[in-house]
Amino acid sequence: MSRDLAEIFRGEAGRCTATLIRILGDIDLAEDAVAEAFAIAAEQWPTKGVPPNPGGWITTTARNRAIDRLRRESTRTDRHLAALRLEGDGMPPERGPDRDLELDALDDFVDVVADDQLRLMFLCCHPALAADAQVALTLRLLGGLDTPEIARAFLVPEPTLAQRIVRAKRKLRDNHAPYRVPPAAELPDRLHAVLAAIYLIYTEGHTATTGDSLTRVDLSREAIRLARVLTELMPDEPEAVGLLALTLLSEARRPARTGPDGAMIRLADQDRTRWDRMLVAEGHTLVRACLRRDQPGPFQIQAAIAAVHADAATAAATDWTQIVALYDQLHAMRPHAVTALNRAVAIGEMQGATAGLDALDSLDVTPLEDYQPYHATRADLLARAGRRGQAVAAYDRAIELTANLTERHFLERQRKAAADLT
Amino acid sequence: MPQYLLSVWFDEPYDDEIDLSAPETQRQMARTDELNAEMERAGAWVFAAGLRLASSATVVRASGSGDISMTDGPYAETKEQMGGLWIIEAADLDAALDWAAKATVACGQPIEVRPTHVP
Predict the structure, then answer these.
(1) How far is Cα A273 from Cα A313, in angstroms, rounded to an integer?
(2) 3-state SS, residue B49
C-alpha cells in the first residue's frame, strides 16, 4: 500500500466499516467488503487517481462487492439476510419474500450516517465485553489496525489477540447486540465505557506496560484521533471533550518525557520549553470550554489537573493547592486508590515529603500493593524525607514490578541515588 | 425473537436447607414474583423456575456402548451452583441485560445471561 493510500485507509476505514456493518448487519462481512474495496483502490487509484470522496468511493464499492457476493452465494445470502433482522433505527427492513427486492432495498441504506461510527464505538465498547476485548475491537474496527499491528502494540502473541477479536465478534453476534447509540438513560454508563477504552489505548501508547521503548506513538495518536471523532459526533458530551483535552495535554509533554539517550524524565525534571505548545493551547481551550459548561466529570477534572501543570513555566511554579483541590473533587466524584495516591504526591509537593508520606500512610493501600507507581512514589517521598533505607526497599519493590526497560533504568538510577546518600 | 437463559448463581454451596421463612428470603421471593408478572406483561417471559438443592441432582450419562450410568449429585463439582433460571425473549442483548439487572436486584444473586441458538 502506498503512503497516501495507507493514510486514507487509516482515516476512512473506521467510518466505512461502521456504515457497512449497518448495511450488511454483520461485522465479518463488512470487514471483508471494506478490505476488498481497499484492494481495488490500491489497484486502480495509482493509475486513475484518487477519487474526490475516497471514503464514499470505498463505502459504495464495498457495498456493491458485498451485494454481488451475497447474490452469488445463495446459502450465504440466507445466513446473512437472517443476520439483517436487526433491531434499531436506520436498519434494513425485515426479511421479505423476494431476495432481490430486499437486496435492492439495501441501496437505501448506503448513505453514510454520521452516527454509524458512534454506533460502532458503542458496539466495540459494549460492557458485556472485557476491557481488553473492547480495546482490541475498537482498534481493529474503528482504527483500521490489523491483528498483527494490535498484537505488536500490546505485546500479545498474535494468535491470542486474533482469538480475542474472533471471540468478541462472535459474542456480539450470538447475543444479538444492537447496533445503535444507547438511549439517554443508559448513555452515561455506556459512554464512560467508550471513554475508558479510548483512554486505555492512550495510556498504553503513553507508557508501554512492557517492552524497551517508553512510548508507542501510534497508539496515542490513534486514541487522540478517536477522542476527536467522538467529540465531533457528541459535541454536547463534556466528558468526551474532557478526554480529548486530557490526551492532548499529556501528549504535549511527549517531547520532554525522554532525554536524548532515551532515558525517562519525570514531570518535575522535564524541560518545559520542549512541550508542544500547539497541543497545550488546544487542550487549554477545551478545558476552558468544559469549565464554562460546568458539568464536571472525571476526565474533565483530570484534564484540568493536566492544564494546571501546563500552566506552570517551571515545576516549582506549579499551583499545587489547586491540584490538591482538583484531586479532592475527583476523589469525591469517583473514589479510586490511584487518585488518592496522586493526591498524596501533590500534598508532598505542597507541604513537604513528610506530609506526603502521612497522606500516603493514611490510605488503604491494599489495591496498590502490586502497583509500581505506588512504590516508586513512596520511595521518592521516603528518600526526600531522609528515610533512605526504606526508600531503597521501596525502589526495589517498584523495580520488581516494572516490565518497561526505560522505566526500570530510571528507577535503578533513583535507587542508586538514594542508596549512595546512605 | 432471540431467547436468552438467565441463570441464577449461588456462590455458597447451594446445599444447605434454605430457610424459606427468613424475612429476606420472603422479600426476594415476593420481588421475583413481581418480576415474573412484569416479564409476562411485557411478553418477555417464556419460563422460570427455582431449583431444589444441588445435592438433590442426579447425573445420567450414556456410555459409548449404550449403557446408562447415574451418579449422585450435581455435574459441576464447584462451590458455585445454579439455583434458578429464566428463559426470556428479548429484542436484543441490551434488552436481555436490562431484564438481568432487574432479576439480580429481585433475587439478590448474580445472573448469567446466555443466548440460545435462534429457534
Answers:
(1) 8
(2) strand
Q: And the C-alpha cell for A334?
A: 469517583
Residue pointed to by grid coordinates 439517554: A184
Distances (CA, A) of B77 to A271, B53, B61, B73: 60, 14, 16, 9
Cβ-Cβ pairs closer than 8 A, A with B, add up to 32
Q: Among A134, A150, A141, A255, which Cα is nearest to A198's?
A: A134
Q: Are A210 and A403 in contact (CB under 8 A)?
A: yes
CB proximity B94 to A under 8 Å: yes
Residue B28, C-beta contacts closer than 8 angstroms, at least 6 positions apart: B106, B107, B108
Distance from CA of B73 to the nearest CA of A (A): 31
Q: Per residue in A315-353, pLDDT tens?
A: 999 999 999 999 999 999 989 888 999 999 999 999 999
Q: Does B59 touch chain A (CB under 8 A)?
A: no
d(C-alpha A232, C-alpha A241), whole Å: 9
Burial code (b: 16+ CB inside 10 Å, e: under 16) for A84-102 equals: bbbbeeebbeeeeeeeeeb
> ipTM, 2 decimals?
0.89
| Shortest Cα–Cα distance, A368 to chain B (Å) | 27
The model carries a pTM of 0.82
Q: Reduce the DSSP state of residue A167 to 3 states and report it.
A: helix
Phi and psi based region of residue A2 (left: phi greater than 0; alpha: psi -120 to 50; beta: remaining): beta
Terminal CA-CA length for chain A: 58
Residue B113's nearest CA partner among A175, A204, A274 is A175
Q: What is the CA radius of gyration of chain A?
A: 24
pLDDT in tens, A53-62: 888 999 999 9
